[in-house]
Design a protein that fits this description.
single chain, alpha/beta, five-stranded parallel sheet, 16 strands, about 45% helix, about 15% strand, elongated
Length: about 450
Amino acid sequence: MAHDILIVDDQEDIRQMLATILKDEGYQTRQASSGHEALDQLKLRRPHLVILDIWLDDSRLDGLKSLELIKQLHATVPVVMISGHGTIETAVCALKKGAYDFIEKPFKTERLLNVVRRGLELSQLQQEIQSLKQDTERVSDLTGHSPQISALKQAVERVSKTNSRIMIEGPAGVGKEIVARLVHKHSSRAQNPFVLVNCANLSPTRFEEELFGKETRIGSIETDLKLGLLEKADRGTLFLDGIHEMPLETQGKILQVLHDQKFYRVGGTKPIQVDIRFISSHNGSLAEKIKKETFREDLFYRLNVVPLIVPSLYQRRDDVMELANYFVKKFFSNNEKVKRYFAEDAKFLLETYSWPGNVRQMRNIVEWLSIMHPEAEAITLKMLPTELQGSEMPQQDASVMSSSFIALPIKQAREEFEKNYLDLHIKRFNGNISKTAQAVGMERTALHRKIKMLNLPATEQ
């Protein structure tokens, strides 16, 4: 995607010359002949870099004042000042006000292009640093090698290379935001912003202002400007997390943005042009909301071009211990002399637990363990929090030592115990007979016979 450079100079021949040089290098350019025209251009769309003349004749804003206002509007946009009447004092003043560099006219083409390249590289580096700061507390990849998560990884890799809209479905805590960030990371927009909109956290009265921004005017004079999340996501990705929570009155306006990539700020009169890839997510309740007419069906079809379904942790139990060990490395102190591991009793419970809170719950539990048992080498069953030991196991997997069980003859009780015991281990290993046999200490063929005799379901993997 070509970089967009705004050229601000009161002399048309200078603007045209700069535009020709930059276009030959593959840049896109826009032009403004005054400070006010430059600000209007910036409000319509954030450029990657600005080339700004210090002396602007027939303008109420000179270059230095325009520089101040540009920095107020877009603090990270590099501004290169140019002047044919420059002095050391003027250059120093421009740099103090936030200019990236200062070039005197007449300038050499190579000098100009070098400054532009360095300015764009600095801007990109600042965006990457900011993105890294935001991502430090997030899992950076989809951890696991189960068939379900492997299929999802392949789908993410394929769809990332397109510009298609994506709708991610899955229950709370499975990692829908991680999937969205991975799509952005591997797309052609990776160097541009990834903007998250948490639809559940915004009230209907604030939703449109946060999304579209706001202009406050007295007559024809603009007195205040707030950029919305749509503008901040320009040329990047906007992730609408929890789209099922979006107010109905806002859905129509989002539909219009999807249609023509334009919108109006709240209180604004000029259309704002953007280039955004939309990714959305929901918890699986959209079909019911569409039926109740609290979510627009036409918006659903606009957003749901490529559906991705993130499995629950219970559906991909093969990944449980890999995730648990990942979080152990993340949260426990990094002491190479201590090799931390889960004891067999704790491992068994983790692998058979239902994980209603999914990966987020797993993360929280391991972080809790690192606080409560920071020196532990072997993490045992007794160390696990009561929410696990109380057990979210299905009823048939709970202890069989009930009054009805005790009343059974010993042969029938033994058979009932074996059936529950083996069923639990088969579920633990997703029907893998070899792993189940190893865990329960039986020969594989003997286990097959026992499963057939007890009429238990099992599928070899």
